[in-house]
């Protein structure tokens, strides 16, 4: 039993931390985020060259053969800089579903590009009426000879504007909320019938509403067995929750540490704010919940890699619950303790806080996962 | 990163389970005899009667993983009654700061559980601010003994204790942390009066102790005169890390779920109440996280590193979790938790649930109130230096 990173993981951690240090101060981030595509293609290329995009893919597919622990190491550092590049969308979400369902031939066609950064994936799973349920799917895929024809709309598709391929969940049988009958397809983002309305999100990232109108794909683009896509979708969502939680833990660390530093500098009533016990105790609460989230992140990630699948699923619900709940708690209090300055875009606090809000709502918020945990 | 127990640890767990099973109390047995025998047998295993003692003093020298396994297993087994004051509290101080003579004189009885101890720390004017204590110890002119005068309060088990370890003031000219002296003396002697304090749950476990001209031979002083605060501070740290009780909380939570399932509500049980269920789930999630906080802390101890920042939160989180379990037990009993006389009403756990809940309010007060813990974390972990205020 140990929580030490391997030598390899430590090297990755150092290399990502250095990258953030050199390339992700607030001004740099603001400039990148302000104009389309909302991230830096140069940075994306650097990430590919440093091998980070290869991490969770099998060695046989040209990947690094890593697991969720390796992704956690990267994402926690990304959280400290609020990285804008589509790592989550392409490598964890789209890539997570794709690698579990694609045939060897399809992998050979797509993955080299994903790993070298020339191709970009995303996962179109959310529908407006579904709230947080992955299995509430009205988008349809109708078999038509050796092809499928997809119709429907997907919402809040992360980084769809720059994606070369979209993994989409569609119903091939069953009723609207059945887990059975969902199939996953890989669709070219510029295929006929695919239309994207792109917009920024409140945390400075990019998303799209994507409509599929009579989009025809060959059956070799089906990921996994027909009607059996839900298990793959859920596994990719679990990977995404772990990655988001790691990012959140990195961001929480910045939020509480910046607050501790700021309250020691800011003088009011002839005292640094940190002199006041009521503020000290608030910051201790922020620190404690950060440590608790970090502990749960380790637990959920280790169980996902080593543990029993049912227990691991339950711990993932627990993780998403506390990361959502305490992430917002830490963010709100960081803003509060920074006073008026916390309300401005000039300090990083507000940007990290906004990211916390979005992370809570991605793949089910704190309440949703509490109910799933208790079920 | 790795959460699997090694084959050696798994074998150790099996050994511990077997020991508990073989030596469990059998109904009808003489309890007092079984208790002392149990500790003697645990000792034969190589120091299992004093798991936390260093090897040099007869402890088992376990790895942190073995300690963790022991704690998990003890939470599920019924161990003989034991008090923390001897083996857990005064013994480490005698080992660390007492002389060889004192070690030979006190440690064997402490270990055998034949002598009970109590802790003379808090005073009416010195609670969270313990260093303000005023109980006076004056050295006789010939230097042979101290005369102790003062009052101690909240003294757990003083009424059944044979000895007290006591913080006294021998000098009040300097900082209040200086001039404190650590003395040991027997409870059954002239000048000591013990008065019970009945707490909210109706239990008598704490007392007021009046000390009037209590004569303490100078051989009963631990370490140097005036250095008692340094010795006691080490012990307080020790006390704090031992109070999280997470393994016990895990077992208690299982029990709580069973209780909730036994309470009917409409066509179902309390477990079908979404509000109650959500509170239980939130509690369980916080406990799951705290378990890993403890494991992280253990793992860094195993690696020989200084305790990381995560260790500091365990007492706070652990006691809060214990209180929430007690509170949900009272909630589960509903109105029946109000029945307080000899005639119980409603679920069988109702009265004990209320008593347990009321007693649990002390968890965040003793051993350093939660607010004091937060002051300590702000200073030592967050590094906030308070300017003079």
Structural commentary:
The complex is a heterodimer of chains A (375) and B (389). Chain A has helices at residues 7-23, 26-34, 41-49, 68-81, 87-101, 104-116, 229-265, 277-306, 309-338, 348-361, 366-374, and strands at residues 121-124, 140-144, 147-158, 165-171, 182-188, 194-200, 206-218, 222-223, 267-268, 271-272. With 375 residues, chain A is of the alpha+beta class. In chain A, the strands form three sheets. In chain A, strands 1-4-5-8 form a four-stranded mixed beta sheet. Chain A has a four-stranded antiparallel beta sheet with strand order 2-3-7-6, with no helix packed on it. In chain A, a hairpin with a 5-residue loop joins β6 (194-200) and β7. Chain A is globular. The mean pLDDT of chain A is 97. In chain B, the strands form three sheets. Chain B has a four-stranded mixed beta sheet. In chain B, β2 and β3 form a beta hairpin. Chain B is globular. Chain B starts with 6 loop residues before the first helix and ends in a 9-residue tail after the last helix. Classes of the chains: A alpha+beta (375), B alpha+beta (389).
Radius of gyration of chain A: 21 Å
Number of strands of chain A: 10
Order of helices and strands of chain B: HHHHHEEEEEEEEHHEEHHHH
How would you sum up the global shape of chain B?
Answer: globular
Helix-strand category of chain B:
alpha+beta
* Global geometry of chain A: globular
* Average residue-wise pLDDT of chain A: 97
Average pLDDT of chain B, rounded to a whole number, is: 92
The ordered H/E elements of chain A are HHHHHHEEEEEEEEHEEHHHH
Q: How far apart are the first and last residues' alpha carbons of chain A, in Å? A: 30 Å
- Please tally the β strands of chain B and state the result: 10
Compute the separation of the termini of chain B in Å.
45 Å
Residue fraction in strands of chain A: 15-25%
Assign a percent range to the helix content of chain A.
40-55%
Number of helices of chain A: 11
Question: In terms of structural class, how would the helical and strand content of chain A be classed?
Answer: alpha+beta
Number of helices of chain B: 11
Most strands sheet of chain A: 4 strands, mixed
The chain pair forming the largest interface, with residue counts per chain, is: A-B, 43 and 46 residues
Largest sheet of chain B: 4 strands, mixed
């Amino acid at each position: 039993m140990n929580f030490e990173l391997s030598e390899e993981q430590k090297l990755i951690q150092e290399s990502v931390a250095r990258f953030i240090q050199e390339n992700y101060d607030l001004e740099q981030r603001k400039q990148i985020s302000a104009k389309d595509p909302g991230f830096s293609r140069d940075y994306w290329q650097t990430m590919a060259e440093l091998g980070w995009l290869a991490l969770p893919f099998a060695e046989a597919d040209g990947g690094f053969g890593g697991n969720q622990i390796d992704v956690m190491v990267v994402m926690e550092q990304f959280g400290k800089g609020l990285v804008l590049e589509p790592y989550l969308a392409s490598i964890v979400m789209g890539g997570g579903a794709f690698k579990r369902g694609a045939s060897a031939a399809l992998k050979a066609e797509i993955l080299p590009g994903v790993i070298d950064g020339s191709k970009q994936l995303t996962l179109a799973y959310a529908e407006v009426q579904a709230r947080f349920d992955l299995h509430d799917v009205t988008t349809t895929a109708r078999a038509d000879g050796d092809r499928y024809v997809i119709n429907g709309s997907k919402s809040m598709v992360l980084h769809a504007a720059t994606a070369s391929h979209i993994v989409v969940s569609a119903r091939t049988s069953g009723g609207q909320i059945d887990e059975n009958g969902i199939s996953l397809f890989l669709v070219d983002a510029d295929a006929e019938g695919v239309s994207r309305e792109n917009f920024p999100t409140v945390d400075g990232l990019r998303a799209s509403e994507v409509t599929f109108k009579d989009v025809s794909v060959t059956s070799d683009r089906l990921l996994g067995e027909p009607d059996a896509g839900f298990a793959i979708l859920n596994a990719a969502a679990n990977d995404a929750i772990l990655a988001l939680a790691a990012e959140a833990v990195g961001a929480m660390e910045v939020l509480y540490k910046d607050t501790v530093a700021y309250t020691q500098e800011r003088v009011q009533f002839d005292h640094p704010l940190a002199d006041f016990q009521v503020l000290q105790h608030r910051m201790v609460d922020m620190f404690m919940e950060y440590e608790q989230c970090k502990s749960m992140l380790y637990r959920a990630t280790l169980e996902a890699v080593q543990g029993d699948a049912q227990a691991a699923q339950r711990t993932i619900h627990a993780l998403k619950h506390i990361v959502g709940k305490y992430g917002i708690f830490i963010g709100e209090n960081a803003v509060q303790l920074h006073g008026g300055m916390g309300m401005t875009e000039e300090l990083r606090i507000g940007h990290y806080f906004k990211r916390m809000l979005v992370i809570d709502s991605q793949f089910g918020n704190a309440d949703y996962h509490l109910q799933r945990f208790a079920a | 990163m790795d959460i699997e127990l090694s084959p050696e640890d798994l074998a150790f767990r099996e050994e511990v389970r077997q020991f508990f099973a073989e030596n469990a109390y059998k109904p009808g047995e003489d309890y007092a005899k079984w208790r002392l025998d149990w500790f003697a047998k645990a000792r034969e295993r190589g120091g299992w009667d004093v798991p936390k003692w260093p090897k040099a003093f007869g402890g088992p020298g376990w790895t942190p993983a073995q300690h963790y396994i022991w704690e998990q297993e003890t939470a599920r087994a019924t161990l003989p009654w034991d008090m923390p004051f001897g083996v857990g509290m005064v013994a480490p101080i005698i080992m660390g700061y007492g002389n060889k003579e004192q070690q030979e004189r006190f440690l064997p009885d402490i270990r055998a559980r034949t002598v009970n101890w109590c802790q003379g720390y808090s005073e009416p004017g010195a609670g969270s601010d313990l260093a303000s204590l005023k109980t006076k110890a004056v050295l006789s002119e010939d230097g042979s003994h101290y005369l102790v005068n003062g009052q101690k309060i909240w003294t757990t088990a003083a009424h059944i204790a044979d000895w007290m370890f006591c913080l006294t003031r021998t000098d009040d000219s300097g900082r209040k942390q200086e001039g404190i002296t650590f003395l040991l003396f027997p409870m059954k002697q002239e000048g000591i009066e013990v008065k019970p304090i009945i707490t909210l749950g109706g239990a008598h476990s704490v007392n007021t102790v009046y000390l009037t001209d209590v004569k303490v031979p100078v051989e009963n002083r631990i370490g140097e005169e005036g250095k008692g605060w340094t010795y006691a501070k080490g012990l307080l740290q020790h006390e704090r890390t031992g109070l999280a009780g997470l393994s016990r909380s895990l077992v208690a939570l299982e029990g709580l779920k069973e209780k909730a399932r036994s309470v009917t509500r409409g066509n179902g049980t309390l477990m079908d109440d979404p509000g109650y269920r959500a509170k239980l789930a939130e509690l369980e999630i916080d406990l799951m996280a705290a378990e890993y906080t403890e494991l992280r802390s253990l793992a860094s101890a195993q690696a020989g590193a200084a305790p990381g920042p995560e260790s500091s939160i365990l007492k706070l989180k652990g006691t809060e979790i214990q209180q929430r379990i007690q509170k949900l037990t009272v909630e589960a009993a509903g109105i029946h938790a109000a029945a307080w006389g000899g005639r119980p009403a409603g679920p069988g756990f109702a009265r004990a649930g209320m008593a347990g809940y009321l007693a649990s309010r002390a968890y965040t007060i003793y051993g350093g109130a939660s607010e004091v813990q937060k002051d300590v974390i702000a200073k030592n972990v967050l590094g906030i230096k308070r300017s003079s205020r």
